[in-house]
Amino acid sequence: MKVGTAVWLDRPARDAARIASAAEQAGFDALWVPDHYFLRDSFVALALAAEATSTIKLGTAVASPLLRHPAQLGASFATLQEMSEGRVIVGLGPGGAEFHTELGLPIRRPLSLIEESVDIIRGLGDGRVDVSGNHFEVSGAKLRWDYEPMPVFMAGRGPKMLQLSGRIADGVITHGLARSHIEYVAKKVAAGEAQADRGGACEIIYMFVHELDDDRATALDRLRSSVIYMVGGSYSEELIPIYGLDPDEVLPIREVTATGDLDRAAAMMTPQMIEAFNVGGSEYVLLKRLTELAELGVESVILQLGGDTVDEAIARTERVGRVIRELS
């Protein structure tokens, strides 16, 4: 199993680079960062991480073409690819709830938004881009230097995005650890691969938070807020049982979440809901869960480990690194 780690950029970019170095030494496969306007800039953080490391892969989980035009995204990723000597993973997604509520950027037609963006970013590497779509008009665009091709991953949750990932992407990043969800994702991605006659071409990565604490109950309690939008956000109701959850318990939480009372929504989370998406407990609880996921066919995960200070984040990274070595 490949194990990557995600660094939330609520900390200085140089601290993220220190964590990247620790993750590389601990045996993690990749370092992933988010791309939100309200956090430190993802490309600055990845550039510093590239300079601080030599083997670990570097990716965004994920960048939106609504914040940066796909051509500019392509140039930024290609620059990182050059700096890192070929270690970049392009991670794309439509965007988060803040796009509409804070930036006045409604996410319309997310499937075509991402498909057009993938075409543009890949086309820049082929030498010329001509895309006329619902979102972008690009004619004759090209980068003026050569670089190694980069794998393109997409964020996917709903059935159509998962299927699109299977059809066009090198990988998909998703959330949800229930057996029923893992089987569902595999089926949808495979359907997309079949459409393009590219069976097995799309890697599936499951991303989750691991709250490290020897007291499992304490760890799960700290994870309540991390699953508010996973459980109580806006998504197709058909996914609720696929996540291994009871609609009668989830629908009231969705109503509360919609009012903005997030403290109350967090208080309504049950351990089952938390563990449908994240893992809490010691590194040995994590090892057991990773072993179970491997038995279900999961081949790649991303762990968000947290830590209030950079030293604590590094300590968690090193502690979980021992689990990675046991897993392999």
Task: Looking at this protein, list some descriptive labels.
TIM Barrel; alpha/beta; two-stranded antiparallel sheet; about 15% strand; 2 domains; globular; eight-stranded parallel β-barrel; 15 helices; about 325 residues
Return the CATH class of the largest domain.
Answer: Alpha Beta
Q: What is the CATH third-level topology name of the largest domain? A: TIM Barrel
Quickly give the structural class. Answer: alpha/beta
* Overall residue-averaged pLDDT value: 96
Please give the largest β-sheet.
8 strands, parallel, barrel
What portion of residues is helical?
40-55%
Number of beta strands: 11
**What ranges have pLDDT less than 50 throughout 5 or more consecutive residues?**
none
Task: Give the percentage of residues in beta strands.
Answer: 15-25%
Question: Going across the major beta sheet, what is the strand order?
Answer: 1-2-3-4-7-8-9-11
CATH superfamily of the largest domain: Luciferase-like domain
What is the number of helices? 15
End-to-end separation: 7 Å
